[in-house]
Amino acid sequence: MSAMLLNKEKWPEFVGKLTGKKVWAPQADSEGMRFALLAEGEAPVPDYNNTRVPPKGVLFPQTETMLKFQVKATEVDEPELDQETVVLGLRPCDARAMAIVEKLFKWDIDDPYFIKRRDMVTLVGLACNDPGLNCFCPSVGGSPASTEGLDLLMVDLGENYLLEAVTGKGEALLKEMGDLLSEAGADEAKEKEKLVKEAEGKIKRTVDTEGVPEGLPGLWEDPLWGKVSASCLGCGTCTYLCPTCHCFDIQDEVEGFDARRCRTWDSCMFGEYTLHTSGHNPRPTRKERTRNRINHKYSYYVDKFDVIACVGCGRCSNLCPVNIDIIDTIRQVKEAL
Amino acid sequence: MKNGTNPYIPYPATVEETWYETGGDRCIKTFKVVFDDEKVRKEWSHLPGQCAMIGVLGIGESMISISCSPTEGDFLRFSVMRMGKVTQALHQLEVGDKMMVRGPYGNNFPVDDWQGKKILTIGGGVGQAPLRPIVEYVKANRDEYEGLTMIYGARTSGDLCFKGEFEEMSKCDDLACHLTIDVEEEGWGHNVGFVPQMLLDLNPSPENTIVITCGPPIMIRFVLENLKKLGFEDEQIYTTLENRMKCGIGKCGRCNAGNMYVCKDGPVFSYAVLKEIPEAFA
Amino acid sequence: MKMDLEQLRKTAAEVVARDDVKYLVGWKQGTYGYRVAPGFVEDAAGAAELIFSPLCTANLATYLTLVEELPIPRGQEPDDRKVAVMVKGCDSRAVTQLIVEKGIKKDEVVVIGCPCPGVVDPNLLAEKYPETEDQVEMKWNGEGFLLLRGGEETKIARDEVLAEKCRLCRYPNPVYSDIMLGDPVEPWETDEDKGVEEVEGKDVEERAEYWAEQFDKCVRCYSCRNVCPLCYCQDCVLDRLNPTWVNRAVNFSENTAFNIARAFHLGGRCIECGECERVCPANIPLGKINRKLAREVRDKYGFEPGVDPDAEPFQASFKPDDPEEFIL
């Protein structure tokens, strides 16, 4: 299918046609912007830089029931998984993160919760015309208009959105829209190209990652880890807000006779994360944890899945309480190589 | 999701026999369990070195090494040290109670590649649990291997696991069982001293031999040192690692040592691989 | 503002040169824009990077108790040297409260006091004067602030970007220090605590609804707890799994339990440095809860934490005439 155009005035109708599906979209609240389920009739225009918390929770909720059972029973029930879902207006970096994380959740054994949700979700991305201060996606293989992980890409052309299907699911969604859309022509394609180029030009904070994945293991004992982690508070901001961080904890919760096995996001920056029951901790301080976090994203993940597990969204740099800035950290790594 | 496609679903297994290996605060209790569902029982297949997630619904799960060889029969054995919330709950299980089991997880000792070789196991304390399946496997396939030597030590005779099984071993000429404890005890008819020293004293030849060692980190460190002194190559030495785990299938993230997930790439590693991972002995 | 950077850096260099000082924690220029980072200084070169400016919002007293000590290898002596820390007025109250609670001992620290005319709220600043990748310099300038960026000077009125904690601040000068830099600043007239009053003005249901909406955003990253200089338990009850007091699940009930437990553990201890609210990635107005409890303790018991190093700790002391109207 060729590219289509949607007049922005018809945006509410476009959203309205998605009835019967769960629709996630960026919405403003006292936190800033965050992804939330749209109520019937709502159609906020996705005019924003990015959300504080990434939309990874659509596929990998911060808290989810894995199994339900009765105390002392041996039978377990699985939860019903969600209905068809659309995520509207997520940024290309966040969609790319989902594709990156999917590699792990599919590695050898499928993680049924993530994969099932991925199958039921249509990801409708919105290219960034105006990247944020800490956006550095081109440094890690992304782009403000990357389609990786997306089913459909929207580009804000001013009066219209340009819609390009990336997958069959994206095409199906365009078909559902019927005559709301009109065909886009060569002018719009050119306009898009121009906008993407401009957006890339607006990215000021960049980092050269060449040689970093191969070089990191050699820097194991480098003093840079002590320097980078000295001020670390050991909180979960960088990992919880990271769209590629995927670690989780599993705990049983009991309420009366009803119980569930539940998984929640976990963070490698917490001491308890690797603490053995014996009291031994293979990563006893924030230095080892910081080193692991960076190595995991920029080296281990590359070894395993051939891609850096960082999409350059800049959230950890934006929101680290003590200015531990991943762009700066990778620059320090690069210098130490 | 249908039952069977979700790897996180544990299956009930009934405790058929259980006994204490050791006493004290951190006592070790062994469970022999059999899956209730015949289909699960038939489909289950593991090899020495692999682990399983075992637990109690409403409390949680722990990754525990399977301490029996598949050659022993259609059951599983786990030797569990009482340490935290889950292992405390497991220790309360008695004959007839249900244990929830999923697995098997991780890689296994490359027993096929080792055919025709001499096998030497060096264990300390509860570290004998993952070695026991190897011992049993080699015993059951005696013709395939050149022989088996077992060195096993603990602080006291009361801290040795699987005590009843050693007598029979020492009666066979192609199986050798060397036991040691740290301090002399009355009536102890075996060696006294630390495991690494006993290894030096026995002075095994590295020729055509595979060594598998498991035990406390300090023991492993000195065993490795002494193996090098005896002329063993890195490729001849194997060990198994443990780390905190939640999922068992390489998703939850926490068990990595460097770029290796202990639950999937391990727990069995050759020293040639491990020595390249700075975090492996952390 | 009488204290100059040269004096600060000179003092810092002298302190870290002392045999009995391990390192000094101060503020240094961050990696870009308005960012300021905690600096761990061990020598004169490090001291030369230190700054003190209206962007130095962080309370560095938290680093006095954040150290993760590894077991000392056999044969090695423990390093008992002191840690030096630079504090503003509010930060010094944290040090004082830590001394009161015996979380630290006076002779373990060298406290360098920096009288503070008030710092900026980095979010307000970025909202009005967008942050760029360029590093900036910011100064106190008479009644307001001066922003220097790329050769340009911008005068900013104090009220426009002053941090909320500073509007309410009654202790701009360090209440406890070993070394004081510069001259004391004149305390200013404080605003009414509109944030707390606004919530107090709601009825019970509205209040519950307000906090439900706030706690719903909590991602339980624990940055509020970890940044707090007075949350220094090595083994936090909220992390415990055996028994589990608060589930790992992130939902209204557990989030409320977490936030309320923390607030109560800080009642009579919180020194209102506002760090929890500054670092919260979900913008939860944690300051309102903590200031509300501080106000209750002040009104009912006449106690204010972190102003007198010889005080008895509030939560561990008892007077026969303590009001007990809230006890059933």
Helices and strands in order:
The complex is a heterotrimer of chains A (337), B (282) and C (328).
Chain A: E1 4-7, H1 11-16, E2 22-29, E3 32-37, E4 63-70, E5 85-90, H2 92-105, H3 112-120, E6 121-126, E7 152-156, E8 160-165, H4 168-177, E9 182-183, H5 186-202, H6 212-215, H7 224-229, H8 237-240, E10 248-255, E11 258-265, H9 286-305, H10 315-319, H11 326-336
Parallel strand pairs in A: 2-5, 5-6, 6-7
Antiparallel strand pairs in A: 1-8, 1-9, 2-3, 4-11, 7-8, 10-11
Chain B: E1 11-20, E2 28-35, H1 38-43, E3 51-56, E4 60-65, E5 76-81, H2 85-91, E6 98-105, E7 118-124, H3 132-140, E8 147-154, H4 166-170, E9 175-181, E10 191-192, H5 195-202, E11 209-214, H6 217-229, E12 237-240, E13 256-257, E14 260-261, E15 268-270, H7 271-274
Helix pairs in contact in B: 5-6
Chain C: H1 5-17, E1 21-29, E2 36-41, H2 44-47, E3 50-51, E4 82-87, H3 89-100, E5 109-113, H4 122-128, E6 137-141, E7 144-149, E8 152-156, H5 158-161, H6 164-167, E9 179-180, H7 194-200, H8 204-216, H9 223-227, H10 252-266, H11 275-279, H12 286-301
Parallel strand pairs in C: 1-4, 4-5, 5-9
Antiparallel strand pairs in C: 1-2, 1-3, 6-7, 7-8
Helix pairs in contact in C: 8-10
What does this structure look like?
The complex is a heterotrimer of chains A (337), B (282) and C (328). Chain A is built from eleven helices and eleven strands. Chain A is α/β, with parallel strands linked by helices and 337 residues long. Chain A folds into two domains: 4-59 and 77-202, no CATH class; 212-246 and 267-336, no CATH class. In chain A, the strands form two sheets. An eight-stranded mixed beta sheet of chain A has the order 3-2-5-6-7-8-1-9. In chain A, a hairpin with a 2-residue loop joins strand 10 (248-255) and strand 11 (258-265). Chain A is globular. Chain B is of the alpha/beta class. Chain B has two domains: 11-105, Elongation Factor Tu (Ef-tu), domain 3 (Beta Barrel); 118-240, Rossmann fold (3-Layer(aba) Sandwich), CATH 3.40.50.80. Chain B has helices spanning 38-43, 85-91, 132-140, 166-170, 195-202, 217-229, 271-274; strands at residues 11-20, 28-35, 51-56, 60-65, 76-81, 98-105, 118-124, 147-154, 175-181, 191-192, 209-214, 237-240, 256-257, 260-261, 268-270. In chain B, the strands form three sheets. A seven-stranded mixed beta sheet of chain B has the order 10-9-8-7-11-12-15, with helices on both faces. The radius of gyration of chain B is 18 Å and the shape is globular. In chain C, helix 8 packs across helix 10 (252-266). In chain C, the strands form two sheets. In chain C, strands 1, 2, 3, 4, 5 and 9 form a six-stranded mixed beta sheet that branches. Chain C has a three-stranded antiparallel beta sheet with strand order 6-7-8. The model of chain C has no long low-confidence stretch (mean pLDDT 93). The longest helix of chain C is centred in the last third of the chain and has 16 residues, at 286-301. Chain C has two domains: 1-191, no CATH class; 192-328, no CATH class. Chain C is α/β, with parallel strands linked by helices. Chain C contains twelve helices and nine strands. Chains in contact: A-B, A-C. The interface between A and B is large, with 50 and 38 residues.
